[in-house]
Amino acid sequence: MLCSPAFTNRACLALLLLSLLYFLGMDLLLYLRTQNYDVRPRTNNDTRQTGAAYHSPILCELDPICMVTVKALMLDHPNHFILSPLASLVDHLLGISHCWTWLSPNAISAFHVLVAVIGARFVTRSSLAYRRLGLLLFQVRAWLDNLDGHVARQRRNIEGERSDVGSIGYLVDGVADGLGCIALVVAVFFLLKRNTNRRAGYERLSASRKLIASSQRDNGGLSSKISFWNSPLYHVLLVGVHFLLTSAAWNRYISVYQDLLETDDRPPLVTKEQFYAKQTAVLRSPLFWAVALGWKMLNFHAVMDYMQLAIFLDRIWEYIRLVRWPAYVILLLLMFISELHYLHVYTYVQSIPPVTNVYTFLVNTLAAQ
């Protein structure tokens, strides 16, 4: 805050560049770890898998590439490579999971909702410094979100990043994340509403409002309709619905891929060695990595981070105008690719006979009609 705005912006861009280089390096290490070491259990007579057991140079729970899971591969870069290891480190140092028995994961979830509400209040302020302080609180919220998941997994002896779909903790965590997202979206709405004349995008909106106001005397109903399509509320609703769809799709593909690639329930006619080998082949395949990387960069937490970065750089209106419709197109394309890929690998892993293959079933159904 003591430096000039220009110097601060340059420092922020330099930090962003360093972060990108760090994430790229960690992605490369994760890829090499997946390709060269076991990612599924190995049996004594298993000759189909290649690779050796991975030995982490540090405590495994602090190493983001130690445990290869579907959720870890689809988790956004800041959470996977910074906040999650930091949460594990704090838990390791303080013994929260084993000693702080009075502190439940659900209580941590409830607390990070409160932090999000406080952060949202700062985001609505006119001062950029206060808004950046609010974004810092949102990062604290994200860290607490990692901490509650880590504590829950430690107490239930679950290794690595995994979603315990259907549990009470899973539902509470989802509701807490949703409330945190709502707090940010509402804060952005008030921020746009209070700063409609500051930048080129705001000036265009202001000019359109003046045009609407002048036409209101001639046709009040039509002007009211046009006013909504140019209002901050309309743009924020687009962003909010996109967040909702992204969250639902991301959690779905984590769940289905996790059930397929991390289960020990193999088909009756497939040996355990063959089953693990197929799961390993999928986890190492370029197509799965492309799908996982897509969700890593475009999941619920990632798109929230992009919006927070735009607020931090004081470019929120430009960002919203840029992504409001392309974001939907990219999301639908990623969902389409993910669905096709999942159907393909499901057929491969489960060894479904061709007569019951999904694609054959669809062709036969259409032919029958």
UniProtKB/TrEMBL annotation:
The record's listing under InterPro entries reads: CDP-OH_P_trans, CDP-OH_PTrfase_TM_dom
MF terms (GO), sorted A to Z:
phosphotransferase activity, for other substituted phosphate groups
Q: Which Pfam families match?
A: CDP-OH_P_transf
What are the protein's UniProt keywords? Membrane, Transmembrane, Transmembrane helix
Question: Where are its TM segments located?
Answer: 12-32, 110-130, 168-192, 287-313, 325-344
GO CC, alphabetical: membrane
Gene3D superfamilies reported for this sequence: 1.20.120.1760
The GO biological-process annotations, alphabetized, read as: phospholipid biosynthetic process
Designated name of the protein: Ceramide phosphoethanolamine synthase
The species this protein belongs to is Dinoponera quadriceps
